[in-house]
Amino acid sequence: MAVTLSVVVPVKDEAENVAPLAREIATAVAGHEAEIIFVDDGSSDGTPERLVALKAEIPNLRVIGHGANRGQSRAVRTGVRAAHGDVIVTLDGDGQNDPADIPKLLAKFAAGDDRLGLVGGVRARRQDTASRRLASRIANSVRQSLLHDGAADSGCGLKAFRREAFLALPYFDHLHRFLITMMIREGYGVAFVDVNHRPRLHGKSKYTNWRRMLVGIDDLMGVRWLQRRMRGKTEAKEL
Questions:
Q1: pLDDT band (50, 70, 90) for residue 22
Q2: Alpha-carbon distance 139 to 213, whole Å?
């Protein structure tokens, strides 16, 4: 069967979450010619073993492992490079993104034209702590003042985008938080849909507000520099 859709899920130490999440994804994409790719980013809790055991139950499940932890953006990139689908859907591996929203993103994508490169989810009702929601609002306000990319929720892991568009972007660690900005930089259109957000049932977040702020400032300056060093998308044809 030809694959047209690839769902890429980066995970690290999510042994208790991956099985129910994989089953939900399989249900959500049952009507599509789809593959599900989990990229294990150096877990130490048995996450890859749980995933491999699921392959007998979910035939279109693929499991790719990093030998060491390299971060979420690298895991997403690994999955996209290995994917066979022209359209990629990403979501976080902690179960807070709802796979039932995948058809909603795909419908928005299908309604667009060839210039639409990405559809991003916007978490309408965040199921995070008050401190994390406050930190996110501040961060989004600061990034909007610098980047002007229209992203109201840059941290939502649920996105759909063209594989070829992603591979055209310059890679850097934490790219996953700036996909919208980088797509616009390359001349692609972006769109947004409201999506569900769920509380984490098992484990704990790999990030703290302080850590996000420290790396975020450096990233913002770098992405702003990249924006200024782009003259726009060029349509090329052979003569």
A1: very high
A2: 8
